[in-house]
Amino acid sequence: MTPQVEIQLIAVVTAAACSLVGTFLVLRRMAMMSDAISHSILLGIVVAFLAVGDLASPWLVLGAAATGVLTVALVEALHRTRLVKEDAAIGLVFPALFSLGVILLARQAGSVHLDTDVVLLGELAFAPFDRFAPGGTDLGPRALWLAGGVLLLDAAALALFFKELKLATFDAGLAATLGFSPALIHYGLMSLVSVTAVASFDAVGLVLVVALMVGPPAAAHLLTDRLPRLLGLAALMGAASAVGGYWLARRLDVSIAGAMAATWAPSSWPRWCWRRSAASSPPRAPARGSA
Q1: Can you give the pTM of this predicted structure?
Q2: Backbone phi, then psi, for 131, in 5-degree steps?
Q3: Per the domain annotation, does 285 fall within a domain?
Q4: 13 close to 144: Cβ distance less than 8 angstroms
Q5: How far is CA 199 from the centre of its chain?
Q6: Distance of alpha carbon 201 from alpha carbon 139, whole angstroms
Q7: 17: CATH
Q8: Which of 99, 127, 205, 260 is most buried, by CB atoms within 10 Å?
């Protein structure tokens, strides 16, 4: 495969993975939690790297996932005090964790290839150069294998626990009455969001991760209210924005991640205007002679 095809494949697989878990964040009205988790996982990555000294260690993924869950727990703990609202709690927690990660990164890991520009913006153009070659056999970009593994993990988890996630998302009280644990389902979903974010940040950056977790699901929600169809549309729209953003970036010679993050927005405006006009228009009168 050529580097162009590999870049687009990485972006498509990453967009699909982010869109799947992002759909439940949008439905739960927790879209900004993706922003909080995506930024705060930097602290877990830096702490894990300082502990093991290897950027390829799986401990970095585990440390980032643990930090994402910690972020959710701290936000909910602050919100339960009833002293601040949830959005204010998010604004208090994730800047503190992200800032601590940036400070540790600058002071303790300044000599390694792990800087704030890469974390925030990513660089898909360099992803094909980091190859996955076990035993000397080139199997393609490492980022593609990592993103593919996370996509399979997300898809398998959603397939196995679809009914539980659906029930806990739309009626947590009923889920608890039926014997399910809404809290356990909630933290399981947040763990998936954390793993997806940390698997994607190296190639596409945190800004694009947030855009892909919120943008395609929100746009797809304008077209359908059925959850299975919504998941499929969100993944397809995320993949389409990834491919369209790549060619837009190539045409304009701009950041690939930035172009991909901006591509889905114009396509959603006509749907939003149509949905709004349909909701505000009066109901049509029945035709004469109809029952």
Answers
A1: 0.83
A2: -95, 150
A3: no
A4: yes
A5: 10
A6: 21
A7: 1.10.3470.10
A8: 260
